Amino acid sequence: MMKQHSPLIMTMIYVSVGLLMIVSIGPFLWMLSSSFKQLTELYTIPPHWIPDMPTLENYRKVLFDSNIPRYFLNSTLISFGSTALSLLLAVFAANGFARFKFKGRSSMQAAVLGAQLLPSAAIIVPLFIILRSMNLINTYLGLILVYMIVTLPLSVWMLVGYFRSIPVELEEAAIIDGATRLEILFKITLPLATPGIVAVVIYSFVSTWNEFIFALSFALDKNVKTLPIGLSEFTTEFTTDWGAVMAASVVMTLPIAFLFLAMQRMFVGGLMAGATKG
Amino acid sequence: MKKLRINPGVAFALPALVVLALLIVYPLIYTIIMSFQTRTGGWAGLANYERILSARVTTVALKNTFTYVFWSVFFQIAIGTFAGILLDQKFIGRGVARSILLIPWVIPGIVAATTWAWMFHSEFGIINYTLVQFGVLDKPVTWLSNLNTVMPALIAINVWKMFPFVAIMVLAGLQSIDKTLYEAARVDGASFFDEVRFIMIPQLKSVLLAVTLLLIIWGLNGITIIYAITQGGPANRSLITPIQIFQTAFETFRLNDAAALSVAFFLFVSVLAGVYIYISQRSEIE
Amino acid sequence: MKPTNRKLAAITALALGSICLPFGASAGEVTWWAPNWEQPRVDEIIKNFEAEYPDIKVKLDVTVAQGLQNRILIALQSGNPPDIIDSQNGWNIPFASQGLLAPIDELMANTDIDWKDFLESGLTTARYEGTVYGLPYRIESHAIIINRGMFRAAGLDPDRPPKTWAEFIEAAKALTTTGAEGNPQYGFAITGGGEFGNTVYRSLPFLRMMGGGILNDKGEVIVNTPESVAGLTFYTDFYTSLKASPPSTLENDGIANRQLFTAGAVAMYQSGQYDLATIHKENPALEVSSIMIPHPEGKQTTALLGGWNWIVPKDAPNKEDAATLLAYLARPDVMGVYTDTFPARESAMSQPRFADPELAAYREMLPYARAPWPVADWTQMTQIYFTYVQEVLTGSMQPQEAMDYAAEEIKALVQ
Q1: How far apart are CA C333 and CA A256, in angstroms?
Q2: Which residue in A67, B57, A190 sits closest to C5, CA to CA?
Q3: CA distance B70 to chain A (A)
Q4: Cα–Cα 20 to 30 A to C360, which of A207, B110, C264, C377?
Q5: What DSSP designation does C357 have?
Q6: How far is the C-alpha of B36 from the C-alpha of B46, rounded, in Å?
Q7: Long-range contacts for A26-33 (Cβ within 8 Å, ≥24 apart)?
Q8: Mean pLDDT of chain B
Q9: Per the CB < 8 Å rule, is C64 touching A194?
Q10: Which helix (H) or strand (E) holds A2?
């Protein structure tokens, strides 16, 4: 905001932020603490926050003695791939829904959500059959395609909302200047919608990064399995190596948080930068 | 505009629609067919529907689903919007705060759920221990097995997990608000709270309406948290319909019953979503 | 904004350039799904097998416990399954009843496999309507694991453990006290949470000792008979009235009980022999032994037989070589190495690892362990039963009332 708040409001802001941070990070700190604990210290009564004998053994196991590094690569490629593909499809679709009037528009936009209305338990087997018929079981492309069910509906709907909030006058001016539809989309609409696109990208990345049930069902090979499957590999029939699971979770979580730390600068309003209105 | 050309809006939307249709049409048909079959593939008529829809547990699960989704979405939107507006303000450490806020959402669902179950545990749990230590409770509470606390505890975990998503979407929505609106308001002597009420919330309306719809749909299909913590227990008190479907299909291997329940639930949710979209579009036009 | 443009292009290229790795099986290749805890042994076994049968290649896919049953079911349903799958024996009959499995007895007809050497209760877990659809390789029974130190502290002799229900209740009461460090200590932890199998395997044997259960031999529902209710009451009383099971009982599965036991909060709990190694590792100081599950005065003890079978999907692409591999795996010496607990055939039992004195109680329980009922809807019935056990544990229903409801719902399934 351009204006400084009064000291009272600033105090309220800091207190609220502080509370939110504690709630948000509390369970993560517990994970972090557990990831440095030894086996004998994980389940104690009473529980304690600070490990008595901190160890790096869990991290050593995760980084050098498990499939996690390989799965990290797989997850990265699959999440990038599905984020990019869904963004590409969603940008066009959202632009179509937000900027054009045509028959059946709102029912088509509603139909986009259809894919998320069927319970995942019901669609796994038929999806497997589709992927197999396309020879895409155990491939990056197969998972990327399936993840469109997860990422695309939201991306389309959110982008429609963000696109609509951009004043249409800007685009009308460009049409008069003779710009094509694509030029308008890429040169005017998208730059102005950067915060919305960042939000959608984060969403797509996070939700595919953590997806378990599709990955479990369609990636059977070490070369394609993703990180959530890697976590479940620390569990055998009756035992779970919790220290390692917690260490692996930290390894899974921190890169995304840092990625966001870098990206959050793009949350500066597009309109402010252009000072275009009027 | 040439008359014969396909509307560019349709052309833009088509690739996404085709991809989604490719992924969903066959599963939908497959599920519908299964719902009318017997275990060994014969014709079952409506028998599967009758059996699963008349089961006592189905009604219980549907009621729980309503409670769970309603309160989850309510608090996710409330806290998420609050957090989004908060993180739009200028203060020291804002970038770091934004990243930390994202953490609940970024932690893998299964791990988050297990960690919470661990923290809530009556014996090992740090929550009971801390509350007893500070004298808030005089003895440990069995959060996850007490019939009165299990649902609130699960809703709290679900809210914790998803409110950052709302905050991020709101934060993005706030950026496209025309800054001249604030300036005009200030000239009129508006306070910060007036700005929130008369500028931010109205301008966020379309984003919030869309986010609410998506949260409802996810809530209606989200199983990870409850499944990993209570598996619907104790005594079905936290059983929601998507978990019932999952268990019917994959734990008790009654695939045809699960298909019937899926189709019924699909219709139900579709109608719900349709009504919501209809109402929200009308209110947007007004 | 051109950078956005370029970035988009780069991301698109990445998406389209993603590698495709289609999987296909060649002739002479057997695909085998084995769980991750078998991995150290399975690699060695495959190496030896391939040395003996150079024409057959074994392709191993490692599975994980989490979501294993849906992964198997998806593969079976989709028509594109592997050739051999390690499956919990409880899933064998449900899969077979949907027509998803190949008959093993037919498949192995040309091999020299000796079915008489297999434990009958193990084969029962694989037999559906007279045909065998799985090859049992691992069988096990629960026993009761006790903390010897706590026994002595309570004035009990760990070498003369309780044998009858009455003695067991007395012991559980004596062991429910304040522990060495001032924390509460519980005598006998029962399960009431987690995946429903946990509580089914732990509570149902008590119903059966009294002559109750879910179904009788004629397939009639008997879950609400006085015998069944007496058995269930014995189980749930440890939590509801005796308070000998910890407050978290409704949250706890077998693993949670082990953790409570390891942390010194619990003196006795039911489990399989697989827990012993974990306890030794996580709390080496604990003095542990196992005892047989107590029985009502004048009646026999029993347990539910747990274990694993190899199954061959109906659509398996290479059944012929799968049969060869199965015949090899079923050899007493190989099966004896492969099983995590006990082998499913008599002649493999002679391996020295099964004579470990620590395993005595589990070995003695084995002849008393009976297979779950071989009906297609067994899992569904036990899930209903479990829901009403939880009703009893939460205190919202009395055992008789709860089992009446359970009987009503289970009867609807039988019809």
Answers
A1: 49
A2: A190
A3: 17
A4: C264
A5: G
A6: 6
A7: A27/B104, A27/B107, A27/B112, A27/B115, A27/B116, A27/B119, A27/B160, A28/A253, A28/B103, A28/B104, A28/B107, A30/B115, A30/B118, A30/B119, A30/B126, A31/A246, A31/A249, A31/A250, A31/B107, A31/B111, A31/B115, A32/A246, A32/A250
A8: 89
A9: no
A10: none
Asked whether the predicted pLDDT for residue B51 surpasses 50, the reply is: yes
User: Residue A62: is its pLDDT beyond 90?
Assistant: yes
Q: Considering only the beta carbons, identify the residue of C251, C259, C263 that sits closest to B144.
A: C251
Q: Which residues of C touch A82 (CB under 8 A)?
A: 15
Window 217-256 of A, Cβ < 8 Å to C: 217, 220-224, 229, 232-233, 235-240
Q: Which chains border C (3 or more CB–CB pairs < 8 Å)?
A: A, B
Closest CB to B250: pick one of C70, C380, C409.
C70
Strand C143-147 to strand C288-291: parallel, antiparallel, or no bridges (unpaired)? antiparallel
* Residue A191 pLDDT class (50, 70, 90 cuts): confident
Two structure tokens written together for C185? 């200590």
C70 touches chain A (CB under 8 A): yes
Q: In terms of CA atoms, which chain B residue is nearest residue A92? A: B12
Rg (CA), chain A: 23
CA gap C312, C329 in Å, rounded: 13
How close, in Å, is residue B147 to chain A by CA atoms? 24
Cβ of B126 and A47 within 8 Å? yes
| Amino acid symbol at C1 | M
Q: Which residues of chain A are within 8 Å of residue C255 when distances are taken between CB atoms?
A: 238-240
Torsion sign (Cα): A130, A136, A138, A141:
negative
Rounded to 5 degrees, φ, ψ at A220 are -105, -10
* Dist CA B252 CA A5 (whole Å): 59
Chain A residues touching B189 at Cβ < 8 A: none
How confident is the model over C222-280, as pLDDT tens digits? 999 999 999 999 999 999 999 999 999 999 999 999 999 999 999 999 999 999 999 99
Contact A136 C20 (CB under 8 A): yes
By C-alpha distance, which of C383, C372, C399, C226 is closest to C307? Answer: C372
Is the Cβ pair B246, A119 closer than 8 Å? yes
For the purposes of burial, counting CB atoms within 10 Å of the CB of C93, is it exposed (0-12), middle (13-18) or buried (19 or more)?
Answer: buried
Q: CA-based Rg of chain C, rounded to a whole angstrom?
A: 24
DSSP chain B: --SSSPPHHHHHHHHHHHHHHHHHHHHHHHHHHHHTB-TTS-B-TTHHHHHHHHSHHHHHHHHHHHHHHHHHHHHHHHHHHHHHHHTTS--TTHHHHHHHHHHHHHS-HHHHHHHHHHHH-TTT-HHHHHHHHTTS-SS---TTTSTTTHHHHHHHHHHHHHHHHHHHHHHHHHHTS-HHHHHHHHHTT--HHHHIIIIIHHHHHHHHHHHHHHHHHHHHH--HHHHHHTTT-STTTT--HHHHHHHHHHTS--HHHHHHHHHHHHHHHHHHHHHHHHHHHHHHH-
- Whether residue C250 and residue B123 make contact (CB cut-off 8 A), yes or no, is no
Its pTM stands at: 0.89
The average pLDDT across A133-155 equals 93
d(CA B175, CA B182): 12
Tell the residue number behind the tokens 């923290």, with chain if given.
B119
Q: DSSP letter string over C202-215?
A: HHHHHHHHTT--SB
The residue among C323, C14, C47, B127 whose CA lies nearest residue A23 is B127
CA distance B142 to chain A (A): 15
A164: nearest CB among B100, B115, B206: B206
Of A28, A129, A161, nearest to B210 by CB-CB distance is A161
**Residue C184, SS3?**
strand
